[in-house]
Amino acid sequence: MPNYMRRKLIVYLTGIFTLAIGSNLFLNAALGVAPSCSLALTFTFLLPGSYALFNFIVNTALLILEALIVHKFGKTQIIQLFITFIYSYLIKLTSIFLTHIQPHSFLEQVLLATLACIVLALGITLTIHSNLTVMPYEGFIGALAIRLRKDFGKLRVILDITCTLASIVISLILLHSIKSAGLGTILASFLTGSVVSFFDTILTTRLNHYLGIAILNQL
After folding, report:
1. How far lies 52's CA from each of 63, 109, 112, 132, 184, in Å?
2. Could you read off the pLDDT of 35-91 as tens digits, one per residue?
3. DSSP character for 216?
4. What is the chain's alpha carbon radius of gyration, rounded to the nearest angstrom?
5. Which alpha helices (DSSP H) does 99-219 contain, by range?
6. DSSP alpha helix (H) spans, 71-135
7. How far, in Å, CA of 112 to CA of 101, rounded?
8. Given CA atoms 65, 66, 67, 73 in this order, what sign does their dihedral have?
């Protein structure tokens, strides 16, 4: 494997590992999770199985929808499926080492949810800069954006809202309470993007240097 590919893979897997940690911190904060994970968390209250398992199932369903949109299940989708498996496994693995992080007050819950947003944003930044592949959630949105000729960011917001509302409706109908969405979900919706931009500002030069990407300054 070429050295630059090895470094890209290291950055990407570090990003996936960081995302898994962020997901577990959200769970421990118990104020809801990021919109993209809300359906997976809802299913844990309804069916036997772990959060990691339902994360894999939801992402696989989105991957199938992506394949239907692009009319193929090719190399890109196979890689995404493999990454989804690794991500779900890392969620399960990292949860073992994070169980001792339990907030004892509402303020501690809010602080932990905020930390989860920051960690999640760092993971997103690393995966983006590795420029290898995307998770099925983003892959589905990207395919839909191309097919509908719509802006990726706007479709991302729509899907986030759809997943959150679906989780709330399912919870209210079947559980008679809202289990998977809360203040943490709101924080993730409004805070994560800004923190990604912050990390992008301070890490881009360092990551490009590590990855061997030449930056041309226009005079």
Report:
1. 16, 21, 20, 23, 19
2. 888 899 999 999 998 999 999 999 999 999 999 998 888 888 898 899 999 999 999
3. P
4. 18
5. 106-130, 136-148, 152-170, 183-211
6. 75-98, 106-130
7. 9
8. negative
Q: Distance between terminal CA atoms of the chain?
A: 36
- Dihedral over alpha carbons 149, 150, 156, 161 (to 10 degrees): -120
Tokens of 66: 């992506």
What sign does the CA torsion over 113, 203, 196, 93 have?
negative
CB proximity list for 33: less than 8 A, separation 6 or greater: 23, 26, 27, 40, 41, 180, 181, 184, 185, 188
Each residue of 104-126: pLDDT tens digit?
999 999 999 999 999 988 988 88
Residue type, 154: K
